[in-house]
Design a protein that fits this description.
This protein has a domain of 85 residues: TATA-Binding Protein (2-Layer Sandwich), CATH 3.30.310. The longest helix is centred in the first third of the chain and has 12 residues. 23% of the residues lie in helices and 35% in strands. It has an eight-stranded antiparallel beta sheet with strand order 2-3-4-5-1-6-7-8. The chain has three helices and eight strands. With 124 residues, the chain is of the alpha+beta class.
Length: 124
């Protein structure tokens, strides 16, 4: 089932490289607009994109608020980002609902040169 929005966390991913990859994958995006620590732009289809450097420690958040992307879910987005950018990517293993336990929120998947692995990432 397609997620209504997708988000990944990138280690050492440069904003310019991410922008170039997004332009190639979803069409030309508007220039980034900075609002405080957050950067925003829009994809060619109007989907809002948010880049938050150092969202969790040294991990950068990339969030697309649309289901109109080439990726069905966070994991597909993470796999594609890792393949294109060559940096470690982390994502949730599936959608998370407020009703779920906090422990479920700490379950993540990391994708790096060693493959994919589920692990516990306590972000708070």
């Amino acid at each position: 089932m397609r997620q209504p929005d997708i988000e990944i966390y990138l280690k050492d991913g440069g904003q310019q490289a991410v922008a170039e990859w997004l332009n190639a994958m979803i069409g030309p995006c508007t220039p980034w607009r900075q609002k405080g620590q957050t950067f925003k732009c829009e994809a060619a289809n109007g989907a809002p994109i948010t880049w938050l450097p150092n969202a969790v420690g040294k991990w950068h958040s990339l969030f697309i608020e649309s289901e109109q992307t080439p990726w069905e879910d966070d994991l597909a987005f993470a796999r594609a980002a890792h393949a294109a950018l060559g940096v470690e990517i982390r994502c949730a293993p599936g959608g998370w609902q407020e009703e779920e336990s906090i422990d479920a929120a700490d379950r993540w998947i990391k994708i790096n040169g060693e493959g994919e692995q589920e692990f516990v990432w306590r972000t708070q």
